[in-house]
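Researcher: Here's a chain I'd like modeled. Treat it as a single chain, no partners, no ligands.
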Amino acid sequence: MRLRPLLVSLAVLSAYAPNAPAQQVETLRIGMRDDPDVLDPTFSRTYVGTVVMTALCDKLFDFDAKLNIVPVLATGYEWTDSKTLLIRLRPDVQFQNGEKFDADAVKYTLERYLNTNGSFRRSEIGAMDHVEVIDPLTVRVAMKQAFSPFVAILTDRAGMMLPPKAAESGGKDFGLHPVCAGPFRFVERVAQDHIALERFPGYWDAARIHYDRVTYRIIPDSSIRLANLQAGTLDLTEIAPLDADTVKRDPKLSLVSVPSLGYGALTINTGQYPKAETPLGRDARVRHAFELALDREALSQVVYGGMYQPNAQATSALSPLYVEEVAPPKRDAAKARALLKEAGVSVPLTVPLIVYNTPQNVQAGEVIQSMAAEAGFTVQVNAMEFGTAIASVQRGDFAVALGGWSGLLDTDSNAWSFLHTGGALNMARYSNATVDALLDRARAVSETPQRRAAYEGGWQQVSKDLPIIYLWTPRNIVGLSNKVAGFTFLADGLLRLQDVHPAR
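Model: Modeled as a single isolated chain. Structure tokens:
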């Protein structure tokens, strides 16, 4: 991964018309910690990719600061029974290539997400059976079985609508030149450097868009992102927790921080792969020993300035589905060593750990390495470029990986795909019939107490098996130039650019 030793600067672009005064093009410059994966909602699996697609692709629904679902490309919805959903659509919306947004486009998009080979949305909407066009502005979605989280799932990538002609002609390469119905359209991408978008003049909600251009700069090093923000060559960027006080003290900057819906975790390979053929991959006692070697609170203090909340489940405490009874165990190195002895493991046990090549992730890996050593583990921290790390995990070429999930509105989106047998994001290759049944039940019932009870049972079983060791709930933290106004930050950490404008 290329790190930039010097400040990254962006030229201020100006447009000139003949015989007319020069007119400045307003550019919003955003710093990104990683290079996004594919810019196609069908195949995307990363937070940073979703950040960019939030400017490209409007969704059927979104949520507000109180986690209430609100319509966007839809105008409303109605469950006519437990397996049938009517969605009414906004009129007079067009995609960035001129195609019309209508019920046919919704039907095409949802079917693409469900049926395309390799789709990461398939697990999210897999309970959907088919979509019917009722009229140009109404669709009926029929479920195979009751599926209460469906509308909440449409507040993320599964709700991003695609133009049928462009998506069909683009196929697997659609993400190289994505087309959607959002406020900005794709201009160019230079890998590991930047992504450029420009304002879409035909956007249905154009009055809320105040920048002509958005440029996302890829800067993995948090200290360099901060330096760019301080120098005025970035307008907005993710901030490392340990840099938060620096931003607060700078009179030219503002810090915006909100609790997250996501989690940080260690994923352990328990599948049928060579790198899973270890005591850690094959024996839950060894995984418990590894967990007991870790002090989540100390990890948060050392690496994240105490801003990350220790957790042992995929649900944030923000959610009504959070289970208070599922709490992280206290560190106990002596008990960890006893478990290793019980499992017949010779110590020290070597554990290769993949981390993303950013300062915070490498530091977290090193702290885990130090803690685990006291319990009889020799952790080898392997720092990899973001895309390389994801590819290694996806093909099963790992033992343990430190990563996370930015978090979606409903726990189903944080759990089912990661833990259910055959889930698209089940990188641990975990399979447990009890967990499968409880995750399925949480989808089928609609009352919050019933759903929470199902998740409680699921977390209890996952805590016994430990294919994933949940570590913390992060905070979303951005630094903002005081030259930018109108920014609103929500719990999923995405950068919504509606109403964001140059401060006057």
